[in-house]
Design brief:
The complex is a heterodimer of chains A (113) and B (115). With 113 residues, chain A is an all-beta fold. In chain A, 0% of the residues lie in helices and 57% in strands. In chain A, a hairpin with a 4-residue loop joins strand 7 and strand 8. The model of chain A has no long low-confidence stretch (mean pLDDT 93). By secondary structure, chain B is mainly β. The mean pLDDT of chain B is 93. The chains are: A mainly beta (113), B mainly beta (115). The interface between A and B is medium-sized, with 25 and 24 residues.
């Protein structure tokens, strides 16, 4: 059973602060890791992906991966109210030739002015 | 098309009826996924298609659920004898596929309500 664990939150941060979202996963065969943002009533949209251990930065977003600890995180700098959404972690597992993202339940982020 | 297209956007059906949900993936994407999301829950994997390979059906919750993908493009998810617990948003996603590291893009979903 592949499991992806995220703190459901809500995580509340003031505007301009750094939001830190964490995720642990059970499938050691996971090769790639995706972060999706989902606004209420909308479908998930991809915001970041990371393949290698370490940090990857894209604008205000930084993804961090530690495969040995089976841990991936997303940092959002200079948080804005428009960042308020649920953030879904999705490791891409491989099983018998299938490449299937397994989603956590997501962390709800609230950025208050 | 520019993105993944799903139809209908909303579907209300009576318990016991069959429903068909359609997904048109991004052109050129060989991988196609179906997920469902119940209110306040995460995304539950249902089925995965990759090119001409046999689909991975390991997520289908019962034999009332089935899916096809014709010509490596459009996919249809069929739910027979719908039950109230089938009410959810059904999401389709596609990716370039062919190996790890290719990100999946989602359609807008079909909200299914079984009454």
């Amino acid at each position: 059973q592949k499991e992806v664990e995220q703190n459901s939150g809500p995580l509340s941060v003031p505007e301009g602060a750094i939001a830190s979202l964490n995720c642990t996963y059970s499938d050691r065969g996971s090769q790639s890791f995706f972060w999706y943002r989902q606004y209420s009533g909308k479908s998930p949209e991809l915001i970041m992906f990371i393949y290698s251990n370490g940090d990857k930065e894209d604008g205000r977003f930084t993804a961090q991966l530690n495969k040995a600890s089976q841990y991936v995180s997303l940092l959002i700098r200079d948080s804005q109210p428009s960042d308020s959404a649920t953030y879904l972690c999705a490791p891409l597992g491989t099983s018998g030739g299938s490449y299937i993202p397994t989603f956590g339940r997501g962390t709800s982020l609230i950025v208050h002015p | 098309g520019a993105g993944v297209s799903q139809s209908p956007s909303n579907k209300v059906t009576e318990k016991g009826k069959d429903v068909e949900l359609r997904c048109d993936p991004i052109s050129g994407h060989t991988a196609l996924y179906w997920y469902r999301q119940s209110l306040g829950q995460g995304l539950e994997f249902l089925i995965y298609f990759q090119g001409n390979s046999a689909p991975d059906k390991s997520g289908l919750p019962s034999d009332r659920f089935s899916a096809e993908r014709t010509g490596g493009s459009v996919s249809t998810l069929t739910i027979q004898r719908t039950q109230q617990e089938d009410s959810a948003v059904y999401l389709c996603a596609s990716s370039l596929g062919g190996g790890g590291g290719t990100e999946a893009f989602f359609g807008q979903g079909t909200r299914l309500t079984v009454v």
